[in-house]
Design brief:
By secondary structure, the chain is of the alpha/beta class. It has two domains: about 170 residues, Phosphoglycerate kinase, N-terminal domain (Rossmann fold); about 180 residues, Rossmann fold (3-Layer(aba) Sandwich). About 35% of the residues lie in helices and about 15% in strands. The protein contains 13 helices and 17 strands. The strands form four sheets. A six-stranded parallel sheet has the order 5-6-4-1-7-8. The radius of gyration is 23 Å and the shape is elongated.
Amino acid sequence: MNNIKDQENLSHKIVLLRLDLNVPLKDDLITDETRINKIIPMINFLIEKKSKIIIISHIGRPKGQINKIFSLKPVCLNLEKKINKKIKLLNDNIFKLKKNDLFKSPYDQIVFLENIRFYKEEEKNDTSFAKHLASLADFYVNDAFSCSHRAHASLSKITKFIPSFAGLQLETEINALKKITTEIKKPITCIIGGSKISTKIGIIKNLIPKFDNIIFVGGMANNIISFKGNNIGRSIKEDNCEIIIKEIFETSKKHSCVITFPEDVLVGKNLDDKSQIKELSNIKDDDFILDIGPRTIQQIKNIIEISKTILWNGPAGYFENPNFAYGSFEIAKAIIKKNKNKSIYSVVGGGDTVALINQIKAMKDFNFVSTAGGAFLEYLEGKDLPGIKALN
């Protein structure tokens, strides 16, 4: 996989840059700018190389229809301020665009194509659409790892028609994930949360042979607590996953991977309640398990202390209520402490975990924080990602 930074002649060349700028919007205001901030080094690199840049991205799921709610205009305006450069948003029909029409003024350096998902051909991975997009530029760069699990025209098919490269952010993401899948420094630990074991069973199965510890927290841990014969009250739990959990314990035993789950918890009678510490044997029928308890926190900290690599995907509790955020914050603090003395390599992923880290302004205190949801999980599962495969 060639990286664009190794391409020597970029001056005055047109680069088609595929980004993931699918940011959350509320009344045309961006509520989380993380994805925009992450791609600025890529844009600055191309500006310094005096390239002409065409940016392709999407917002939401307009299902192949033009819908102003999903316009990239707020993203353009936000990025303009960040890089202090004029950006032109093209609303023209992409099929009518020609390479020679895009940068007529010498002052134009960056143009945005309007939401690529306004065209049904994008999600159909349409050959003629991909070929036309390729005809607009000299080089193609994929810097959208978080979309690369999609076999879409601007990610997959396009590489057949134009010299194609990986972007700076995409390479950083893959290098970080390699450190927790193939180039591992042991002992390696995975802290995994979320509400459903079934959606992450592929990842768990793929990681058990490679990892020394897998720690279950959050809603996922409730399934294991229940499987072990404990009452979990009214807590969130997935039905019919006993066979999956049995398989996890059997596989981990075979590969000497230690499974850890909460031995004490914080409960409330509802999501807005105050917290109460409880042993697993004392949980009442009307209790909700909403965080891990102090003994569990200490146990997790001890495992982090002896780990050289860590993957964290999923908070430990219902952190939206500060009364149930302590477990997640303590996990974060323990990893950050080891990060500061460079005795651990840490990778964090998943929307809720990223939101938690943003809340404590600790984005730069981990080695890598991934904003890629599906692509991040599918990579961990060992699947081929169409966007990455196309670059290879």
